[in-house]
Amino acid sequence: GAVVSQHPSRVICKSGTSVKIECRSLDFQATTMFWYRQFPKKSLMLMATSNEGSKATYEQGVEKDKFLINHASLTLSTLTVTSAHPEDSSFYICSAYPGTGNTDTQYFGPGTRLTVL
Amino acid sequence: RKEVEQDPGPFNVPEGATVAFNCTYSNSASQSFFWYRQDCRKEPKLLMSVYSSGNEDGRFTAQLNRASQYISLLIRDSKLSDSATYLCVVKGDGNNRKLIWGLGTSLAVNP
Fold it and tell me: Which of A53, B29, B42, B53 is the 20 to 30 Å CA partner of A72?
């Protein structure tokens, strides 16, 4: 099946720094990617929809200036958490839709665990 | 009312037991339905799609009742490896590709 990678898998940073997370579709082109956040014992919460070549669409309550999304190519989307704070510590997961085929099929990356000290 | 509701459990069952999970959704225009499985500290993985006619994959059976806006997952002959959180997921209507996630139901299969 299709493969989506995320990098890094785990990151620990100091409060106030910025962290960039990459999401790559390895064997298909992804016109749409989604970024999710999951807190312990909570469900996945969609943060934003990333479309190649256009601005991301953010969900209500998600600060677009804090969570910068760039979908510069059909295989790469990046999420940058700017000026990270301890409350941003979470599990960040991306998913990708292929440009063709079954539009219901969404492929998930393995996630990035962010800890902000 | 939440868009997708599930009993969070936990469900503790012995090996070999049959266990059923239920899920309700609020948007009657929803088009597609799924069950995902998520292991601790891992990404969710698609278990199966859910169709109106019901579908079965080995020990797993999923059913959809559109009139009641209700989805179910039945696991027969539970294995230790079935221990995980099971997420009910609903896709929006039309061309909306967004997935709406339930909180998940935690299952622990005990020896």
Answer: B42
Q: Which residues of A touch B (CB under 8 A)?
A: 32, 34, 42-46, 49, 91, 93, 97, 103-106, 108-111, 113
Per-residue model confidence as pLDDT tens digits over A47-95: 999 888 888 999 999 999 999 999 888 899 999 999 999 999 999 999 9
pLDDT score recorded for residue A4: 94
Q: Is B82 helix (H, G, I), strand (E, B) or coil?
A: helix
| Neighbour order of strands in the sheet with B70-75 | B4-6, B19-25, B70-75, B60-65, B55-57
What's the CA gap between B56 and B28, in Å, rounded? Answer: 24
What is the pLDDT averaged over residues B49-76? 93
Tally A–B CB contacts below 8 A.
42
Dihedral sign computed on CA atoms, order B40, B42, B43, B44: negative
Report whether B53 contacts B61 (CB < 8 A).
Answer: no
Instruction: Decide if B13 touches A, using CB distance below 8 A.
Output: no
Specify the 3-state DSSP secondary structure of A85: coil
> Looking at residue A13, what is its pLDDT?
95
Calpha distance B52→B100 (Å, rounded): 19
Tokens of B70: 């209700």
The position carrying tokens 């959704």 is: B25
- Collapsed DSSP state (helix, strand, coil) of residue B15: coil
Helices assigned H by DSSP within chain A: none
Q: Do A46 and B98 touch (CB under 8 A)?
A: yes
User: In the structure encoding, which two tokens stand for residue A7, read together?
Assistant: 């990098």
